[in-house]
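Troubleshooting log. The previous structure file for this entry was overwritten by mistake, so regenerating from the original sequence record. Sequence copied from the archived sheet and checked twice against the printout by T.R.
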Amino acid sequence: MHLLPLPVRRLAAWCGVVLLASGVGYVGILLCSELRTAVTPVLLALLGTALLGPLHRRLVKAGVPRSASAGLTCVAVVAVVGGAVYIVVAALIETGDQIVASLKNAGQDLAGRFGAAGTSVDDLASNAKELLTKFGGTAASNVISGVSVVGESIAVAVLALFLVFFFLRDSHRAMGSLRSLAPRRAGDTLEAMARRAFRAVEGFMRGTTFIAFIDAVCITVGLLVLDVPGAVGLGALVFVGAYIPYLGAFVSGAVAVLVALADRGAVIALWVLGVVLAVQVLEGHVLQPVIQSRTVQMHPAVVMVTITAGASVAGVLGMLLAVPVTAAAFAVLHELRERYAPTAEPPALSPESPGS
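Regenerated output below.
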């Protein structure tokens, strides 16, 4: 080994470090995948704690007991999310028949204007119920697995909510518990790493909330101007969906377009589609890269690549967790670099002149 030049030895050392870190990371991902039923609620609870921590701390400062503050915070979140989902689902149920009729009318208009090019759309809209029946018959064979997935999702959500309550209530004891698990000399370093990583996650959640608020306000104003029913509920759905990159925006935008199509016709639906697309372009090219790069201290390109990589590894959950996990990892690396980076040696004193 000593026969190799120094640059080659350094390259070999760095390659060994990269391979070791990659192997540990891969094994960690496999373990998380096998234990996803237990790991997912913990990760979601940490995100929820980072988002709701400021509200909980304000209630505690106002004199509310810690347990009551944590309970009120969780109840407020359930009320907001549940209310938004209820409003949107009720609007879709009320306008379901109108949506099918509007699709049929739009298909007939296309068939009248474009001839054979629009006939297939008309047939598709006319046979919507038959297609849904066939699809339901095909999907009936998978109903058991579907029920199990829904049950698992509900269990994960309930467990995550309880964990958020306990994390908020006992947040003041977290650092003490962490230090008790660490070796005596590593306690300060471990605490500093944990605090910095959690601040990075808080920054991500704060930035995401700001982006979600802007999206919801812009789309709600557009729906109100276009006189679309349930504009406030649809805006609430946009706010909640913004926490899931890409997919949440697609689902909330599709719901808004369908409601507009059912109540206001194809022309207004196209305007709603234009508003949704404009807001999503603004989010994807301006808000998401700029705000998230500042709140999580990551370059916009890294944010985009991280979301894509998370989606390829773990789907929707990976999209949700990719940026905060990466931000926490970067924060830990920065803390270690600041603590263990070699300090510059002071310059040598020049010898005094003989006459001084």
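The two ends are 51 Å apart (CA to CA). Archived copy saved in two places this time.
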